[in-house]
Amino acid sequence: MIERVGNKLPHPITLFGLFCVAIMIISALCSVMGVSATGELIDRTTNTVSQQTITALSLLSREGIVYMLENAVNNFVTFAPLGMVLVAMFGIGVAEGSGYISALLKRTVQITPAMLVTPMVVFLGVMSNIASDAGYVVLVPLGALIFMSFGRHPLAGLAAGFAGVSGGFSANLIVGTIDPMLAGLSTEAAKMIDPNYVVAPTANMFFMMVSTVLITGLGWFITDKIVEPRLSKNTLEKDVNKDDSLGELSDQEKKALKITNFVMIAILVALVAIVLMPNSILRNLDVEATDGFVASIIDHSPLMNGFVPILTIIFLVPSIIFGKIAGVFKNEKDVCRELENAMKSMGGYIALSFVAAQFVNYFSYTNLGTILALKGAALLETLNVSPTILMIIFVIFTGFINLFMGSASAKWAILAPVFLPMFMKVGISPELTQVAYRIGDSTTNIISPLMSYFAMIVVFAQKYDKKAGIGTIISTMVPYSVIFLIGWIILLAIWMITGLPLGPGAPLTI
Length: 510
Prior knowledge:
The chain is mainly alpha-helical. The protein is built from 22 helices and 2 strands. It has helices at residues 2-7, 12-32, 62-77, 80-98, 100-111, 117-127, 134-149, 154-167, 178-190, 205-230, 238-241, 251-276, 302-305, 307-326, 332-344, 347-366, 368-381, 387-402, 408-424, 430-443, 454-462, 470-498; strands at 36-43, 48-55. It has a two-stranded antiparallel ribbon. A hairpin with a 4-residue loop joins strand 1 and strand 2 (48-55). Helix 4 (80-98) crosses helix 15 (332-344), helix 6 (117-127) runs antiparallel to helix 7 and helix 10 (205-230) packs antiparallel against helix 22.
């Protein structure tokens, strides 16, 4: 029913345009009614905590109209997914056009057991958050191609990749970019109770390592037993059904693939070697690392901040070599033509990004998301329940707020000063509160149209089913969201009952 109703809605571009109109009207009404909320908030520019009163701002006031006019272009060009997707598509587009990805998938089909395809896609999706949001651009569409290469429904592969990348965003086997960012905000909030308290970037490592196994297993079960059986083969586009990715490689392609893979490995080895240098250009020299080095690989390093152009180079150079050896590229004009084709294929996404960017920024400008979070926090503060039940309620509350505020760091900057001190007063450690937040923040990403990359996922799906819309994606991802949430809550409850540390020196209680 969700898919049927959702897909009867207007085109996503029209729908986000209507969302913009709706938020204008709602913000004006809330402003007239004097809707506001007061609470302790972190100033993101100074990282200090202060008591602030947030008032709803109207988009239909003089200031609001001026804001919309003056920031329309800036909202669009600074829309986080837009630049990342377009730059990454230079490398990925050439990789597809040269035949390199197709050849890799053919080889993958030959050496990978069919039963391990799903967990491989989900696991790689989870691990991709090491590189922040790059997984959305690479792993999600690649999941569809991998499934199609095995004769399976590409939308099931897309769903598995999306579930791993977004639904399991907080999980990982190592510290990722999200860890130091959240830990910094948690530290500032914890200092409201204990001025000397520090939440380390590794504070949730043990829990998230186990969570990686959990999400991979649950994603495997949901994809194979629930999602894929529901997807009908006849929804595929005719040209997709003609895919020949299961065919054999020609001798020329085998030669090209062998040489290209060697080049790819050489690039990766060189990259690793550069990163491992103590004062590498790819490290952040201003932040001490947790691995014994004097500079950090993860925390705001050039490696992480510049990962998308690095990724583009990693794809682009080998793809050009493959295309040249395989006879696809005769000269540089053929390569440039593929770059043009890659941008042509993103026309729909660019148009959708414009209206989606306006809506996301309008919602932020009006303060409605912040007010909703503070009002909900005040309600939650009145509850008198056990720590385990309190954490479960907080997970569900965070998941609900996540439907309206997509940014993990922006939400935590609002919620941390409210909940961390409150929970510390009843003996709950900041590390445990942060874990509960991360669970709720991850599990509802995949069903929220406000999530920055949601529009892009719709565009990816339409490659295989022109009728796919917001309803298709939400209905497909609901089983992942619900089961991930239940599974993660059970794991959290077991963790709290057994009293295991969440990470090195990270207790459950204080």
